[in-house]
Amino acid sequence: MFGKNAAVVIANPNGFDCNGCSFINTSKLTMVSGQSRMSDGAITGFKINNDLTSDFIIHELGLYAITQMMSISSQERLS
Questions:
Q1: What is the spatial distance between Cα 65 and Cα 22, in angstroms, rounded to a whole number?
Q2: Bridge-based pairing state of the strands 69-73 and 26-32
C-alpha cells in the first residue's frame, strides 16, 4: 500500500501459496481462503472453502507484515 495505512482484506477461493509475501502500510490484514459475503457494499462475513484447492500455505521465506492486527482464516488440515 502506498500512502496512509489501510485495512486490507483478501478473500481468494483458490487459497494462498505464500513464499516471501509481504505487506507494509497495512493497519489490519485479513486473508481468507474462501469468499467474502457482501451486502450494500460492505463485507458481512466470509465463507471458508473446504476443498483441497483452497489451502493457505506459508513456505520457507514466510509471510512478512507490518500491521497492528492480522487474521488468517482457512480450512484446517493436518498431514
A1: 5
A2: parallel
Contact of 13 with 35, CB cutoff 8 Å: yes
Domain membership flag for residue 41: yes
Place of cell 513464499: 19
Q: 34: domain range? A: 6-73
In this structure, of 36-40, 62-66, 72-76, the range with the lowest mean pLDDT score is: 72-76
The pTM assigned to this predicted structure is: 0.82
Phi, psi of 20 (to 5 degrees): 100, 20
Q: What's the chain's Rg over C-alpha atoms?
A: 13
How far, in Å, CA of 50 to CA of 75, rounded?
Answer: 6
Burial class (CB in 10 A: 0-12, 13-18, 19+), 52: exposed
- Kindly state whether residue 1 falls inside one of the protein's structural domains: no
